[in-house]
Amino acid sequence: MLRIPGFDLARAYAIFGMFIVNFNFSFGNLADDSPAGNFLNIFVGNSTSVFIILAGMGVSFMTSRKAYAEGEKKRLRSVVLKRSWFLLALGLLLYSWWPGDILHFYGGYMHVAALILFVPKRYYILSAVNVIIVYHMLLLLIPIDTGWNFYTFEYPDFWTLSGFLRNTLYNGWNSIFPWIAYFFVGMWLGRLNWNDQRIRKNIFLTGLICFVVFEVFRLIVEQGSFSPFMKDYVLSEYFPPYPTYLIITTSYALMVITICTFIAEKFSGSRLIGWLATTGRMTLSNYIIHITLGMILFAWLSGKHYSGLLEDETPTPPMHIMGFAFAFFCLCVAFNVLWNKRFKHGPIESLMRKISG
Question: Disulfide engineering: 253 pairs with which of 49, 67, 169, 304, CB 3.0-4.6 Å?
Fold first, then answer.
């Protein structure tokens, strides 16, 4: 399997962004429009898109050879399916503690991906487009707020069959439709030759151009005389994720991933880059650590009650959240480096590999 340190560096960036987003959700104020509050909100969605695209790339790298025997295809598909079930089960176990869990959605992405592992790479982009089309069809059939209590951000019927399917497939935080589109883009990227500098440059320029064009488009719509529907559709952010948002966050991810590959190569001998790459290889463990130990520690230090839901006490100032997220990230880096001295994979990663093969 292809191992490029820059991808691990990008994963480290993504997990740091998730620390900020999730600590802010549980203890901060999402509506804080101060410069510090706006800075924290930059990571909302952007970190997730990097994470999901890299996950898709990882699955694609597992099957990147040009030819496989049928037995090899069956074995690799089985590995992906077992990992999808592991992530689904782990995410559902965590859900009562952390309702914003993304792991069970990851399990869904990987389960679907297992069905199209060995198709030509152009079908990954077609699949991403079709997913967005299906999502819009669902929007016409089911109100996007079905099942939600947006005062508390609870989903009361999650544990019913209809509620679970609706949340997982359509209107959960990172539901399969349309978020798996990122995963498919990642699978397509994973089939490219990342050792070719020209390809990396083109990926970066594509991300940069799309990002600028669609941000300018948003600015025009925001300041122009457009209908409320048009403004809501174009300016929508994390929820619901409409095409403009999906394109901008995908473009952002393309830039981040290519920049990280450049930095990792440029400073390949740097100890810090090595530490961060190690952290990126243990993102699953770090995710579990931050929504368990991290939340408990933050609640204790701030004298608050952790509920897993939107902050219902006096919000913690954004600079305090940023400071804690950075400090906790540094603790995770230290733990990851020490763990890596004795073990090849992180604790949760090792468990998943033992189960899936």
Answer: 49
